[in-house]
Amino acid sequence: MNSVTLTSVPLTRSVSDARYVPRARAQAVPYDENAKRTQMRAFLSERRAQAAMAAALAPTPRPTPKRVLILSSDAGSGHAAAARAVQLALGADYKVIIERPFDLDVSLPSVGPVRGVDFYNMVQAHGPPIVLDLLGGFQRLAAPMGETLHGPVLAQLMDKNKPDLVVTVVPMGNGAVFKEADARNVPLLVVPTDLDFGHFVDQIRTPGERFKLALPFGDMRTQAAHLPESAFAVTGYPVRPDFCAAEQARSSTLDALEIGPADKVVMIMMGGGGTSSDRVIANAQLLGTSLGEAVQGRVHIVCVCGRNDKMRRDLGPWVNRSARSRIRVHALGSCDGNDVAALMHKADVLITKPGGASVNEALAANLPQIYDRSVHAPFWELGNAAYAQAHAMGDWVDPKDMVAKVAAALARGKPRTPAPNPARSFPQRIRSVVDELTKPRDKR
Questions:
Q1: Quick one: average pLDDT of 404-419?
Q2: Residues 291-324: tens digit of each pLDDT
Q3: CA 76/CA 84 separation, integer angstroms
Q4: Cβ(267)–Cβ(344) below 8 Å
Q5: Phi, psi at 101, each rounded to 5°
């Protein structure tokens, strides 16, 4: 048998030599209660900070916007323009619904049913002028009939839309509006579209704290002297921001009409319904024929026909005849508010009737106005003309003097200092009033 020699292996050899090396046993750490608590507090503090950071970065859910029901009308374009001005001022923070409850059918003998707005425009264009004054001047006497006619429609609209606030920009039937809103404990805001606005609130006699009348100017309280001081809020006139801009962006309409930077512009606009079409056409023909003898340079006579397609067609021959002339005639149909604003900023004079929207939009655009004396203005529009006259921005002119007055206005140009007009502050002020009226109330 062969013999085997055994040698000792040092314990310091590594495991890589396929030898086991015993390791020193770790010493036990004594348990420290305070240290554990400190570690736990630090851990919880860090988790809370992480949760707070996550909450801050997470998108905040938007509250359900409050609902604002605006009552408007298609009569002319002033009411629709005012409703749009209110809507733009409220922005996306409110859910705005615009309804037209007063454009109802009226049954006329030998005519049959006629839309209320068409009846109004028909009377304005062809009826005896006194009819409009009677319609506006005797609203309080006709209030019971108005409540019977409009009440059910208003009640249906309010129940359907469930508004947090009702805004009306129409003078007719506000007694019925107030009654239906008050019955549902819904606040009411009246926004006049004329500077003479007593007929807007004549039917509202005893409003509570949830009623406001938006005043164009602070010194107009006497027109509604029967209302308490708490009912008034000075907001300025409801004019869309485009008319108040210091500089108006170039419009595609100006480009389409080939209106150059040095060209003069005369606007003729008699309401969105184009109700005084005969005077629009007569003025366009008169100026297109005779203005060239009184002024130098290129002049554009821009007739805004609104929804009156017949007037636009009747102006067609004059548009075609003047296409290559130094004095050009244009006929526009319904225009976007931005186009009208661009035209007013560019124009040198406006021939119009003194409707509230036309006057105040022109004032905001620093545009002088001429009121055709042959066109009847209802009594509630006279205050608009009076304000423009008082600030040398408007004048009544007979047809026989129209050419001379327009030529003088073109030579004079726009005034250096605009007339006082608080339309620029309207968005902020009306928003403040709406915020206040829709604020949650203490239940008593």
A1: 92
A2: 999 999 999 999 998 878 888 999 999 999 898 8
A3: 14
A4: yes
A5: -75, -15
